Amino acid sequence: MSGHDCAACGPSGRREFLRVAALLFATLAGLGGSAAAAESLPVRTARGFRGRRDEVTYPLPAADGVEIDKAQQVILVRYERAIYAFALSCPHQNTALKWSEGDARFQCPKHKSKYQPDGTFISGRATRGMDRYAIRRAGESVVVNLDQLHEQDADAAGWDAAKIVLE
Fold first, then answer.
1. DSSP state of 89
2. Where are the domains of the chain?
3. How far apart, in Å, do the first and last CA atoms of the chain sit?
4. Taking CA atoms, which of 15, 36, 70, 93 is between 20 and 30 Å from 26?
């Protein structure tokens, strides 16, 4: 959380989250036939398999792209020979992030914080990168540990390690 007062930034809470989630869904639905999306990182809807209480398993992404699992609030990204799992919400004020297809980056619709596909902070009101879940590879699957969320500023080593490097 940054050190400035966000009381004047607009409404928050459940109603704002649902509004932003609806906008995110509408944005993602519009990416289906876009040539620009095919040239950047494509966005797909993901459905993880919930095994243990604290883990969700996804098929290993075959190509670079962004997968969003709204039910589990997880973003799975394959980018430049690595796989990452992020919390769906912006680390600044927990607003659902959206994928900007033209810019090939994530953006917070509330305060305009921007992030690279690997979650690295670019600009805006946030003060750190996107929060990463601990992940591991299990054969042709990616297992996301929902109980281990790493914040870049509080746990830089954990945040850096929270990825699967592909060979």
1. B
2. 10-165
3. 36
4. 93
From the options 2.102.10.10, 3.40.50.300, 3.40.50.80, 3.20.20.210, give the CATH code of 10-165.
Answer: 2.102.10.10
Q: Are 1 and 93 in contact (CB under 8 A)?
A: yes
Q: What is the pTM of this model?
A: 0.70
Tens digits of pLDDT across the chain (167 residues)? 444 444 444 444 444 444 444 444 444 444 343 333 334 565 555 555 556 678 999 999 999 999 999 999 999 999 999 999 999 999 988 889 998 888 899 999 888 899 999 999 999 999 999 999 999 999 999 999 999 999 999 999 999 999 999 98
Strand partners, 85: 76
Quote the CA–CA distance of 108 and 124 in Å, as a whole number.
9
Length of the chain measured in residues: 167
In the numeric block, which tokens belong to residue 138?
A: 């299990």
What is the Cα–Cα distance from 164 to 27, expressed in whole angstroms?
A: 28
Provide the β-strand partners of residue 148. Answer: none
